[in-house]
Design brief:
Length: 159
């Protein structure tokens, strides 16, 4: 981790492919030994979406594309955003640092396992609930403002 790390902002992603979810066995902290959804801290000057792509590549060697937001946890000190993400490429493997193994686990099995923590299970369930999460929304921003991302509830009325 670098001095560029914004310790108040973090992201994670739920990637489901062929009825399996990508999980990593954490090697430190409160989640040590647990299978969790990959993620990490956002660097200064980096968007949450860019951080998610970087963290997945660093930790799992898998390239992903962020999709909808399925969870947000925040308190007085930090925030954590969980995206669904689409698998793009790569063979899942451990970074042998922050995780000791990376594996595709059957989604239903992941929800039953004792070594998958509640937050990860909750985010998998949220991802399974459907595409009605918060989705990136285009809007016309004032030219005075820096580039921004807006996520909002999908308009299902037109479907």
């Amino acid at each position: 981790m670098s001095n560029n790390t914004n310790w108040g902002q973090s992201v994670a992603g739920v990637v489901i492919r062929d009825e399996k979810v990508l999980l990593a066995r954490h090697t430190y902290g409160g989640g040590k030994g647990m299978l969790i959804i990959p993620g990490g801290y956002v660097n200064f000057g980096e968007s949450p979406q860019e951080a998610l792509v970087r963290e997945f590549k660093e930790e799992t060697d898998v390239t992903v594309e962020p999709c909808s937001i399925v969870g947000i946890r925040f308190n007085m000190h930090d925030w954590y955003i969980v995206f669904t993400a689409r698998y793009v490429s790569g063979e899942a493997k451990s970074d042998n640092n922050e995780n000791s193994e990376v594996l595709w686990v059957d989604v239903r099995e992941a929800l039953e396992r004792d070594d998958v923590p509640g937050l990860t299970k909750s985010m998998i369930e949220s991802a399974l609930a459907g595409p009605e999460g918060l989705e990136q929304t285009e809007y016309k921003a004032s030219p005075k403002h820096a580039p921004q991302s807006l996520y909002s509830v999908k308009d299902n009325k037109s479907n």
